[in-house]
Amino acid sequence: MKIYILPFFIFLSSFTYSNSYSKGSLFHKYIESTGFEGVVLVSEKDKILFHNSYGLANREHNVPMTTDMSFILASVSKQFTAAAILKLAEEGKVDLNTDISNYIKTPESWKGITLHNILSHTSGFKHWLFDKKVNIKIEDNENSYALEGYELEMLESFSPIEKRVELLKAAPLVDEAPLGTRKFSYSNAGYHLLAYLIEKVSGETFENYLKKSFYTPLKMNRTSEYKMTKIIPNQASGYVIQDKETTKACCYRYSHGAGSTYTTSKDMNTWIDALLNYKALTKESVDLLFTAHTKVRDDVFYGYGWQIGKFKGFDRVWHTGGGFGYLSVVDIIKGQGLKIIILSNKDDWDEKESTLGKLDKKALELYLNNEL
Question: Cys-Cys with 78: which of 42, 270, 305, 329 at CB 3.0–4.6 Å?
């Protein structure tokens, strides 16, 4: 592991404990031992227990990481899309259990599919519109390109939302069992469709509706939707681990509605506080976010944009995200008001257990043992 010698004032400004140093130092030493790079925030209700940054925000220019850096959340973004749908429901503009053909034009194969189905990944929609195993050929007036694997994923991601919706309409369902009996099948494409529907119903862009409904009233001034051309202050650059070598990530996908939100650890903490205290949505809506609507595997279930389960007997809701240089974990132990936020710009997702998963588990164990 490389050791970065940072100026002493930077280290002090980013290393924050509100309890005893000995408790925070246990977690700090563990994090350092993993080679993690990014930001970790742990809070209990309105009290920050741990907040620290590690490694570099930009390797090319040797920029140290700080706790106010912003990161792309990848699939952790889905909770914001789900919350926006529930906000529309609170406003009386949508019904979660009504056929989505009431809001947008749909093919016959989608008959009966509801917002509830899409939110809980029981719609039967594909995960990605392009199959990574399928090769395609693109030709223009001068060149011919053969694309496969993740190049197809990127091509899908760069398509406008309207184009992606049209592709989804033309794609076959992966599960054609009667609605209500379809199994959990994770679908980024479904959440792209939700973002499109939000725009059609609200009459606003997806980004503006989220800003008006959540980011501005909650003063989440460092949170918005990622675009490749947007200048994002203090954004950590993304890197990917390939064959144990760190490489620069290229071209984060514009995963509209499914993984396009960027934020900071502080803004994310503000958001979860707002959910738990019913400042962003009503209690009824928050309960729907955190209800186990469908089974994922064993003792893991899916709500709306959140996974549901238990950790050593405690009720737990969480979600992970990753891709193209960024990883994120957001974890909540509801009864204790515990919030764990881990944001990284070093993507080691292909490992059997990512570094973030290890840190999340360690933070939970230390907290429950009164060591954090």
Answer: 305
Closest CA to 345 of 201, 239, 202, 264: 239
Integer Cα distance of 85 and 362 in angstroms:
33
156: nearest Cα among 36, 253, 297, 12: 253
Any idea what DSSP says for residue 59? T
Q: With 0-12 CB in 10 A as exposed, 13-18 as middle and 19+ as buried, what is 296?
A: middle
Is pLDDT above 70 for 129? no
355 or 113, which is more confident: 113
> Tokens 């989440």 sit at which residue?
220
Q: Are residues 360 and 262 in the same domain?
A: yes
Q: In the prediction, which pLDDT does 130 show?
A: 60
Of 229, 331, 325, nearest in space to 276 by CA: 331
Task: Point out which residues pair with 50 in neighbouring strands.
Answer: 42
Domain assignment present for residue 212? The answer is: no
Q: Are residues 58 and 97 in the same domain?
A: no
What secondary structure letter does DSSP report for 334?
Answer: G
Q: In total, how many domains does the chain have? A: 2
Which residues are CB-contacts of 143 (< 8 A; sequence separation ≥ 6)?
none
- Together in a domain, 66 and 83: no
Among 26, 13, 89, 3, residue whose Cα is nearest residue 369:
26
Query: Is residue 108 located within the same domain as residue 69?
Result: no
Print the domain residue range for 111. Answer: 79-202
266 half-sphere exposure, CB direction, 13 A CA radius: 13
